[in-house]
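EI: anyone free to look at a 153-residue chain?
SC: sure, send it
EI:
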Amino acid sequence: MSIILFSNDFDKVMAAFIIGNGALSMGKKASIFCTFWGLNILRKDYKVDVKKNFIEKMFGMMMPRGAKEITLSKLNMLGMGTKMMRGIMKKYNVYPPEELLKMFIQNGGKVIACSMTMNLMGIKREELIDGIEEGGVGTYLSFAEKSGINLFI
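SC: here you go
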């Protein structure tokens, strides 16, 4: 299975990693190719001291830093909706996106950061969490070509 994760919306990230972890639990190979806004979930949740130009610094300040900072695509209500969702998820023992991401990597899933988008947005390798691979569209396409299931989220 291969998934393109284009979004950093809480609900879409949840869907990608629930499906990805489900595939792994069935013994399938799975990869999630994170591009554009989806890259934000792969960022460390703290500032990393790397050399950046002005535009790269601006992008870095405006984008969420890691999966803990993402918000719902609908009914976010200035963050209140996301907090409510996290509370309900905790009550029903549903893992949050940051845990689903860790589980996916620990269980052998491939998470690939789009190198072209990293360049465009000024995201440096040092800013990414551990266990992330880098690759371009060719990397994604080579995996997708062999996959029976391809999703765009």
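EI: The beta strands are 2-5, 31-34, 110-114, 132-135, 150-152.
SC: 👍
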